[in-house]
Design goal:
The protein has a domain of 75 residues. It is built from 2 helices and 4 strands. A hairpin with a 2-residue loop joins strand 1 and strand 2. It is globular and about 35 Å long.
Length: 124
């Protein structure tokens, strides 16, 4: 009986611990693991936005989310844009190796403090 009670307590503790750390609706990756969980580090520079964008594009290419030819991207341009009254960094990359012209430009969105938001081919 003691073994059963001990096992039950340990399993309940493990289940509580896992549910406390798991959340739905977001994922963690090597580049933007939400390591500061909302603690703002201040705005990043234009140059840092491009650097983070390059890393994100390479990650997306390695993951297969975008064409693998994006993995060699080395240049991009960053601008601040406002969406829903919130300013964001939009980093744009070009890849003329892509035959589909609608997918030759890839846009990576970051919050002003550098947290990845999204990526798409429209810039919107």
């Amino acid at each position: 009986m003691k073994l059963f009670t001990t096992t039950t307590v340990l399993l309940a503790s493990l289940a509580f611990s896992l549910s406390a750390h798991a959340g739905s609706g977001h994922s963690h990756d090597k580049d933007d693991g939400h390591s500061n969980h909302g603690h703002s580090q201040g705005p990043i520079s234009n140059k840092k936005a491009v650097t983070k964008g390059i890393a994100k594009v390479k990650f997306l290419a390695q993951r297969g989310t975008v064409d693998k030819s994006w993995a060699v991207v080395t240049q991009g341009s960053a601008t601040k844009k406002t969406f829903n009254n919130k300013p964001e960094w939009v980093v744009m990359f070009k890849n003329e190796k892509i035959k589909d012209k609608s997918k030759q430009k890839l846009y990576i969105f970051f919050s002003l403090d550098g947290h990845y938001i999204a990526a798409n081919y429209t810039g919107k």
